[in-house]
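--- STAGE predict ---
source: upstream dedup step, 1 unique chain passed
mode: sequence only
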Amino acid sequence: MTRFLLAASACVSVMVAQGATGQGADVLLNCSTCHTVGSGSSMDAATQRVPSPYPNLNGQPVRYLERQLEAYRTGLRQHPQMQATATALGDGSAAMARMYADAAPPKLALQGDVSAYLEAQKLIAEGDWSRSLPSCASCHGINEEDRARLAPRLHGHPEGYLARQLRAYADGTRQSDTMGRMRSFASRLTDAEIAALAAYYAAWRVEGAGSTDENEDQPDG
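--- STAGE serialize ---
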């Protein structure tokens, strides 16, 4: 694993696009500054920074990560720092995506009172077919076998990040979804449902991890 990380770092370090201005290449390409890479078994809760202001990319599907970096490069997703980083990575995006996909995902458990998330759990488990809303769990899971899917793990992501992404899908400013499915689904959710879903997924945490301030401008993965 160590050799792979070093190889990935060397691969991307020589592929800095000249258009990525405003920040040094060392900052743009040091993805782990925001998106922690590490083993879920060897790192304690504080070191894993879960919850964190930034989405956790460890163990996410490699094809999803590659597609999102491409979306930032082409403008299908909007975030100044991530767009500059994706541009700087260039052909090194595949190595970076693989590094995160191969990292052990965080060990998460639902914190708090389960009954506080009944509305979200119903949408996740059953959907609402009267509005042509399939269950969230039909695409987004948390188990190891879910890494073969194209859809990312949502459990453990920051609440504010999740809410922003659902709203971005709903209003069409995020267009990185295959065949527009997430844009279609999110546009049918109410503001209260978006808030409920974001709160539920964010409630999956590494036990003992403290809360963090999500009010800063966060690089979105």
